Amino acid sequence: MDFHYTAEEEAFREEVRAFIAEHNIPEDEHEDPDALEGWHQALIAKKWIGFSWPKEAGGGGGSLIEQFILKEEMSEARAPALGSDFMGLTWVGPALINHGTEEQKQRWLPDLLNCRSIWCTGYSEPDSGSDLASLKTRAVREGDEYIVTGQKIWTTLAHKAQWIFMLVRTESADRYGGITCVLIDMKSPGIEVNPIPNLVGDHSFNQVFFNEVRVPVANRLGDEGQGWRVVMGALANERTGISESTTMVQQLDRLKDLARRATRGGRPALEDPEVRRQIARFDCRISAMRLNGMRHLTHQLKGELPGTETSVNKWLRGPLEIEMHDLALGLLGPEAVEPGDWQRTSLVFHGTVIGGGSPNIQRNIIGERILGLPKD
Ligand SMILES: Cc1cc2nc3c(=O)[nH]c(=O)nc-3n(C[C@H](O)[C@H](O)[C@H](O)COP(=O)(O)OP(=O)(O)OC[C@H]3O[C@@H](n4cnc5c(N)ncnc54)[C@H](O)[C@@H]3O)c2cc1C
Predict the structure, then answer these.
(1) Is the pLDDT of residue 172 over 80?
(2) How do residues 221-263 score in pLDDT, each as one tens digit?
(3) How far apart are alpha carbons 118 and 105 in whole angstroms?
(4) Does 23 lie in the same domain as 138?
(5) Number of domains in the chain
(6) Residue 113 domain flag
(7) Are residues 278 and 343 part of one domain?
(8) Does the beta carbon of 361 sit less than 6 angstroms from any atom of ligand 1?
(9) Over 70: is that where the pLDDT of 29 sits?
(10) For residue 299, which of 240, 242, 243 has the smallest C-alpha distance?
(11) What atom in ligand 1 is closest to the CA of residue 198?
(12) Longest dimension (CA), the chain
């Protein structure tokens, strides 16, 4: 790994800093949609949404290192995510670039890059989560269409999305080879979306029913039976996105702020040696995640697609979230039973740990496919 940046890369970092200094970063992206829209338009004009996508695909054609610098600087400035569609930009777009036909790229990528579409993801079913290859939603071909029938669950944003990136079974004979990826218009007749409230009463995920939904064969991504290949790349991108260390750096900053305000024995908790030790340990683990992220980046710079190693950071994030929330709630003391940010995230962070594959599944991947241990 080479930790040095070239003069061009340093110049790019300065360009990002200058852009941030010149533009108003929306303070609360949910409360001020106009400010967010203005921010997005400025990013679109710079081609910084989909910045590392190839120019032929409408992206910025930036290098992966520049993309890393861009995200690092934006995170440092506490800017909102680059673009409005996390799933679309993190895995649907890259899957379209890698597996889509020219027509499919023209059809879906521009809206993604211009913040005009929202995608959701239909993998999980009531009996198929970790064991995704057991999925049962069927797609039966009739001329130029597939007739899709089945049920998906935990489908984040299905109530807002225009499109679903979805796995269906086109054949039952082969567990993996009978799986196909299709892109379905959420307004198609026969789709019903039912909300599932989470522990704090928010609505982010859903059950989605497909009752003989007609999907043009032209909406199939990759060949029939190639869905598993398409989705393995998408899942690696999802795991990388979820476990970017920048999010954890921001969370650690919040924890340090809390430790400054909270008291232990009449003094700021941040002066307590045990609290300091715990925070220092979190800092080291986040640095390890950042270095792992750079290791993935190095592989990608050599032309390799993100693969099994993305499970390492995804797995590291789980215990870190648990321990950071334990410390935060401890620092809050009796206040921990009142409503508040840490109280709220302590009830919902488990979603990030489970979504994209539970910690046990990441352990299996690391054990079997990276360390070469016998199969579970
Ligand atoms: C916030 C959130 C958002 C989500 N969004 C989406 C979405 O948009 N689209 C989508 O398709 N899905 C989504 N999911 C679903 C997610 O992918 C699944 O919850 C996850 O893959 C686990 O599947 P499951 O819930 O069926 O649990 P199960 O697979 O039933 O697992 C239950 C437990 O058994 C353990 N386990 C299972 N198999 C093994 C094994 N072989 N070895 C060891 N332990 C094992 C698991 O680790 C877990 O602890 C989301 C989940 C969450 C929490």
Answers:
(1) no
(2) 999 999 999 998 888 877 776 667 888 998 999 999 999 999 9
(3) 16
(4) no
(5) 3
(6) no
(7) yes
(8) yes
(9) no
(10) 240
(11) 1
(12) 75
Give the percent of the chain with pLDDT over 70. 98
Residue type, 321: E
Q: Return the pLDDT at 303.
A: 81
The mean pLDDT of the chain is 92
Residue 220, domain member (yes or no): yes
Structure tokens at 347: 């009830």
DSSP string, 7-44: HHHHHHHHHHHHHHHHSPPPS-TTT-HHHHHHHHHHHH
Is there a domain that residue 108 lies in? no
Q: Does 97 fall in a domain? A: no
For residue 356, the enclosing domain spans: 243-370
The number of the ligand 1 atom at minimal distance from the alpha carbon of 158 is: 8
- Nearest residue (by CA) to ligand 1, atom 51, is 355
Q: Look up the CATH number of the domain holding residue 51.
A: 1.10.540.10
- CATH code, domain carrying 360: 1.20.140.10
Q: 283-322, pLDDT tens digit by residue?
A: 999 999 988 888 888 888 888 877 788 899 889 999 999 9
For residue 358, report the distance from its CA to the centre of ligand 1, in Å: 6
353 and 250 fall within a common domain: yes
- Phi/psi for 19 (5° steps) reads -60, -45
* 238 is a catalytic site residue: yes
Q: Contact, 69 vs 48, CB < 8 A? A: no
Q: Cα of 341 to ligand 1 centre, how many Å?
A: 25
Q: Which two tokens stand for residue 355?
A: 């979504």
